Amino acid sequence: MIRFWKIAAVSAILFFSATAMPALPGNHWTVEAAGTVKLNKVPYLTTANLNLRTGPGTKYKVILTIPKGKQVTATEKSGNWYKVSYSYTSKGKKYTKTGWVSGSYLKKASSSGSSGSASGTTKITKTVYQTTANLNMRTGPGTKYKVIFTIPKGKTVSATEKSGSWLKVSYTYTSKGKSYTKTGWVSSSYLKEYNQYINTAGTYYFTTKTANLYSGPNTKSKAASVPKDNGFYSTKKVINSIGQTFYQVSHNGKTLYIYSGDVKKVNPSNFSTTFYSAQNDTYLYQNPGYQTQKLVKISKGTVISSNQSVGSWYKAAFDGKTGFVPTKDFSKYNLKFTETKISGEAYFVNSTTYLYPLPDQKNQSLTTVPGDRIVWPTHKTSNGWFKISYSGKSGYVEGKYLLQTPENAIPYLTLDLRKPANITAQDIRNFFDRKGHSGSQLKQFAQDFVDAGKKYGINASYLVAHAIWETGWGGSNLTSYKNNLYGYGAYDLCPFTCGYYFPNVKEGINFVAYQVKNNYLMANGPNFNGYHLIGMNKKYATDPKWKIGIASLMADMKPYDASYYNNQKPVAANGPKPPDYGRDIPEGKPVPADIVLTYPKPVKAKIINGNVNFRSLPYLAKGTVIESITNGTEVTVVGYNTDVAFDPGRKDAYAYRWYRVIYNGKKGWVNGEYLQFIEPKSVKVQVNIKEGTLIIRNGPGTGHRKIGSLKKDEIVKAVVDNTGNPVKLNGWYHIYLPGTKHTGWISEKYAEISK
Question: 66-90, pLDDT tens digit by residue?
């Protein structure tokens, strides 16, 4: 009974209090079961990680923990406890939990109206978004607010505040030359975070500490971790949606991203090619760092070459792969040898071998040199190697793979080419198969070679060998695009454009067989110097290797049979004279892409010397004219023909190129005689060599033909692009030959801009 009356007394007090002071939320009661006060959806922010409980007190069960900085909405208050609702997203689904939290860890959030009631807004890190549709910008965070502006699809905006699913953004645009900025609210449903990808010059970056790599340009998805001083090569940077800069890199075969604040830029150091020997077993790495992919193992004693270092790494090529090796694992390799210059001596490669950068097998080979071919060494070394050039590379081969081949050792050199060959079409086809050229397009014309030999009284074995020599077993552009197997009509400065065009290969074989027989192998012929290859080599080709190469192929095709040829008599031509053919590829026929060298940037020029025909192909043939361009008209030059222009009516027939230009939105060709480059500013190049002369070449590289030379400190004018900068391609400057309007190329290594 005593307990009953105490409870009743307390109840009375509670009743009185509730009646006398119904709306004084500032009062605090020591009694736990104090009354609750309704609130009108007031927004608060948590100031710490905060437990959400089933009731207003610490004795109640925890439902979940709300992270610091999150927004909650309060609907009731009991003492210093608030009944709140908290919404969050997990694994793509949205959830809302309701419970009680302590008011000690809440602070009022700023609010603005969205639907007539107070709704909190939150400051966010400035974030860039891109619109995914035409999007209305409004005066407030809701569809009931007035539309200020419609932002087009694909535009970028910057957000600084959030209210529910609405973002307060700024959008800047230009209209009639003026810039405007609008600020308002948009629905986030039509936005995606925007990352700006920017292509950059190739740059090496090294980590300044242990750093993370990410699968995207942000810190949300860690993919790997690398230690300090690990290097990467990047050609692209990304400015992400919140303004952070990341670099796109390759790591263990994956494209990843590293934060710019974790790396420093390291410039490579270039030097003359140097050889190094491995002091222990090591690896060639994909990038300059131990945590990157190992490309191939390098055994102790292996010799590599390098001309560039990046940090403490050498850039090198090994086993067909290019990567980096640690400098600490290598020391300079000095191979002591002397070499003696030789010239004019032909050697036969008796077995497939390798071309090395030094006369030592410890080196990584440059390329394979196939057997059964003739080479012309330039030097012989003291340790028995020979220096040769093969497939555009200069290096050394072991002497045991070369046999000296004096001219008198090849009977085909002095054979009367009017004598018929003891060879069949099947013998020719078997020869292609035996030499590993079963797929050569020449093989299918075996019978045509035999027929032409009989028709025009010329050795068929010679016709086949000559075609192989000129086309590299049938792989030349003249063969593929002009059906020309013999380089007929071509010149050193005009190897493609000036070559004759034939409607089919058979016609090309017949035409050359007739021309060779009548012009070179007849006593009254204009180019007669004997009935053999030695005589033909005086005018058909100036290279002394020509006759040896063809004779060697004839011997390889079928060994010389003296008993056969001693019993043969020269045969007169029986076939009629073939029709005359021109040099131009007919309209509509394919043209090889590599007759065009493209400028890195367009170059401005104007038409001079009168009106000029604008042609669809770089030839003078009728029917290829697109239209006429008036004298003085400005055009845009985007490239030129790697051959010079051909005009048989001029003394300087090979002096002018064809240029690829854009005119009236169309691409075509203009003869260089009618073109003059426009120079926005004067730019000159000065030769920077210690001694000798600097070679001017027909194109940007040592593989192009020599067309002139410059002396030490000589200054020439540079061809410039439409921004006024000198045209440079693959490390070569495009320059004017002194005193002419003709152009050529010189290596950047030996020249410097002189303005």
Answer: 999 899 999 999 889 999 999 988 8
